[in-house]
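ESCALATION

Customer reports they have been waiting on this structure for their group meeting. Please prioritize. Original submission:
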Amino acid sequence: MMRNAFGYILGFLVFVAGIPALMWWVSGKPFPWAPTLPWAVIATILIVFGLALSIWSIVHMKKVGEGNPFDAYNHEVAPRTKHLMTDGPYRFTRNPMLLGIYIYDIGVLMWIQSWWPLIIFAVEITLLTLQVRSEEKRLEAEEKRLEADFGDEYRAYKCSVPRYFLK
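Update from on-call: job pushed to the front of the queue and completed.
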């Protein structure tokens, strides 16, 4: 139970609080600061939608998959899933948690309205994409692990559902 909670707390601290705080700090904007009305509305919608997608993905994976996919560079942070997720948010994208975080971050960037935080976002996307796609370099990369755990079922799913949102 404690290890499971640790993974969720770590995810919250890094992705929901830490990276946006770093983006804000790099922007040099005062805190609190709010953009003009149309930007604030668009940013809020993206932030809420991105968080909702990530939370839906986590809850769905916990209930149906009976675990969590959170392996961080060959270190298991939370118990691994027991069942392949192909329904719920996973019917649209193989990585709904990451897609949700990216949408959330785009909302944060729109709220902040500064170019410098784009560097943080680009680094985040690069590191997370390497984590997901590094099956050639590491035996325990996420997609290799899923192939090992779920075999042909995962390979068929991988061919029919995009990694993020475009096939």
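Sent to customer with the following note: The longest strand covers residues 71-72.
Escalation resolved.
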